[in-house]
FadR family transcriptional regulator
Amino acid sequence: MNDTPETSRNSSTALEQLRQLIQQQEHTPDRALPTERELAERFGIGRREIRRALDVLEEEGRIWRKQGKGTFVGPSAPVQPLVLQDLPQQSNLLEVMEARLQLEPGLASLAALRATKEQIALMKRLLERMHAITPPEDGDQHELWDSAFHRAIAEAAGNRLMLGLFDAVDAVRRDPGWQHLRVQARTPARLDNYDTHHQRLVMHIAQRQPHEAAAAMREHLLALQQALMETLYSRQEEAP
C-alpha cells in the first residue's frame, strides 16, 4: 500500500488505532490479529507505520508474534484509559505544553512510588529503542518511541483518570498539523539533552525518588516548551 497524505498519518496514529483494536479483541486472545496488509488497508495507514506500532506493542507486552501463525493479544490486556472526546480539535501545541507541565511531573512522582520492576524495565527498553533509531533524523520514530516512553511513566503511576488525561493531551500533541513545527524544534543537541533528561527520569523512578522524578520531568518539559516557542517565533519572523 502506498503512503499518501490522504491514506497515511504516522506511526503514532497506527499505535492509537491498534490499542483500540486490542481492547476489542482482548476477550479472544487465541484469535490472531489481522495481517499487516489488512491493518494498513483497514486504518488507511502505511505498512511501515503499522510495523513500527506493532513493535511498540510487542515491547510493552501487549502482543506476541509467532512465525507462520500471526500476531496475538497478550500476555495481559492493556490498562484502558478513559476517553476524552474532541480535545484535539479544541486546543493547540502551546496549551499542550502547559497541560503537560501540570500533569506529567505528578505522574512521574507517582510512578516513582508505584512502578513495578517490569514497568521500569519497559522504560529502559523504550529508551534503548530511541537510541537505536536509524536514521537519527527519523522524526516519525522519535515521536513514536518518545510518546511510548512517556505513556509508560503515565501507566506506571497507576491512576486511570490521570492516564486518560495523559492520552487526551498526547492526542493533541500528535496532531499532524503541528508535525512540521515539532520536526523543526528537534535538533541533535536538543535530542542529546532530552536523552539525559530521560535517563535521569528512569533513574529517579527506579530509586523510588518521587520529588526528584517530578523535578526531572518538569525540567525536561520546560526544555521542550522553550524549544517549541523558539521555533514557532522563528517561523513567524520568517513569514512574509
Notes: Residues 1-8 have pLDDT under 50 and may be disordered. The chain is about 65% helix and 5% strand. The longest strand covers residues 63-66.
